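Input/output pair, single chain:
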Amino acid sequence: MSGHWNTQDTITEERLTKALEVLSSVVAEHGEKHLPLLRMIEGQLAQLRARKERREQAPALPETMEKVA
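Output:
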């Protein structure tokens, strides 16, 4: 692992959702010791969705600021 991000390393909502599906299966099959990882991915997905929602609401803001200036 070089520490550099490739485009294939981008964290997306789809990748996090797929990770949750896989981790849910792992927890079901191998026990609750893997729950912390599942919870971490759930948190990342929630943060990603919150950022996405803020970005979708933000475009109107610069237009408003230009009118004020």
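The radius of gyration is 18 Å. Residues 10-55 form one domain.
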